[in-house]
Amino acid sequence: MGVSPHPRGDGRTAAKRPEHPRLKKTDAHPTRKGLKRRNHRRYRQFLRHGRGRLYRTLAALVDEGPPPYRCRPYGTPGRPPTNPYDVVRFLLLKNLEGWSYDEAYATLEALPELAAKLGFRRKVPAASTVVGLVRRVPVPYLEGLIGQTASRLADGRTNAAGDATGVATRRYQRWFDVRHGKKTRRRQFVKLHALVATRAQWPYFLSARVTAGTWGDSPELESLLDQVDPRVELGNTALDKGYQSRRNAELIEERGGLPVMDLKANVRHALAFGHPAWKRMVLRQREDRRAFRCRYRRRTLVEGVFGAVKRRFGEIVQARRRHAQWIEILCRVVIWNALGLVYDQT
After folding, report:
1. CA distance 238 to 248
2. How far is CA 299 from each of CA 160, 203, 238, rounded to the nearest angstrom?
3. Burial 125-159 (b: 16+ CB within 10 A, else e)
4. pLDDT tens digit sequence for 110-169
5. What is the sign, positive or negative, of the torsion defined by CA atoms of 234, 239, 242, 245?
6. Which of 35, 88, 91, 187 is the most buried (most CB within 10 A)?
7. How far apart are CA 346 and CA 337, in angstroms?
8. How far apart are CA 314 and CA 312, in angstroms?
9. Has residue 61 got a pLDDT over 80?
10. DSSP for 79-104, written as a single string
């Protein structure tokens, strides 16, 4: 029998190849080092008993924070003011279940025990009242709730990944296409920017920010880093090519993290130009490509989290006004982090 001339030697050989020992049934799919498998028993318990705990967690989260906005004190002349905390509870339940305002109000009226779990102490506000008061709920208030839940979920040094995703709305852009001679329309969208903790069990949002759909990703990183709770210690921060800039690398190092950015093809030197963090990052990436790939590959978790949030809460926001759209998206992020708190307690 002849020997294959292939340089790798994968042809027929005169020597008999050694047989690999047969794997046992328990070793048929060995777990790779460092890979944590899902605890299915714990996950089933979370699905069975997590809903009631989630209601109580959301109620406690709203009660412990400051009021969303100021209103007239009780006892003054005029219509009694609606409790701002009840407005936020109403919005969280609406976005959790995917109901309309009327469906959420009807359910709370029909199930007083559900209203009690969510923390409603007085009369549940009417659907029309909540619609009118959504504009008074500030965006920074919900961003603060996201940071508050993230600080509870963080455990030691936290690796993160950043990205942005578009969320479709019910509004359309319409124009006449001169080239094709017909009317064209496209669904409008807003953009969710986020920093996500890349842990294996239930990744969560460290910070989130909603902007118009045409805004870029790179300028929003500074706002995302400012929203991260100071008690959270950042580790590796993986970002794609859209965030590549010397200033972003410097901001991550100032926050205590390690910038891990995928460099574009036109990056040919590591000149700092006043940002030494950029030079250290480029040299570190070029000297040890394997270590860079091990750090950067965890960025895919942020894509999985975006997909999970859209499958859980829907890919389209129901609100039509811009402020209400931002409030609806941030409520979904708060609920996702609250689900992570319940999962950790299971």
Report:
1. 12
2. 8, 11, 6
3. bebebbeebbeebeeebbbbbbbebbebbbeeebb
4. 999 999 999 998 889 999 999 999 999 999 999 999 999 999 999 889 999 999 999 999
5. positive
6. 88
7. 14
8. 6
9. yes
10. SPPPPHHHHHHHHHHHHHHT--HHHH
User: How far apart, in whole angstroms, are the C-alpha atoms of residue 87 and residue 72?
Assistant: 15
- What's phi and psi for 97, nearest 5 deg? -95, -10
Long-range contacts of 211-219 (CB under 8 A, 24+ apart): 213/166, 213/188, 213/189, 215/191, 216/242, 217/163, 217/164, 217/193, 217/242, 217/243, 218/242, 218/243, 218/244, 218/245, 218/248
| Tokens, residue 53 | 């705990």
CA-to-CA separations, 310 to 62, 168, 205, 307, 317, in angstroms, rounded:
24, 10, 14, 5, 10
Burial of 9 (0-12, 13-18, 19+ CB in 10 A): exposed
Q: What is the DSSP string of 228-292?
A: S-TTSEEEEEEE-GGG--HHHHHHHHHTT-EEEEPPPTT------TT-HHHHHHHHHHHH-HHHH
As a whole number of Å, the CA-based R_g of the chain is: 25
CA distance 137 to 68: 6
pLDDT tens digits, residue range 281-314? Answer: 999 988 998 999 999 999 999 999 999 999 999 9
Cα separation, 17 vs 19, whole angstroms: 6
Contacts of 344 (CB under 8 A, 6+ apart): 153, 202
Of 120, 116, 51, 56, nearest to 83 by C-alpha is 120
Give dist(CA 10, CA 172) in Å, integer: 58
Residue 117 CA to residue 90 CA, distance in Å, equals 12
237's CB contacts (< 8 A; 6+ apart) are 159, 160, 161, 162, 195, 252, 257, 258, 259, 260
Spatial neighbors of 251 by CB under 8 A, at least 6 apart, are 221, 222, 225
Residue entry with tokens 């406690």: 60
Phi, psi of 219 (to 5 degrees): -65, -20
Residue type, 31: T
Kindly report the number of other CB atoms within 10 A of residue 337's CB atom. 24
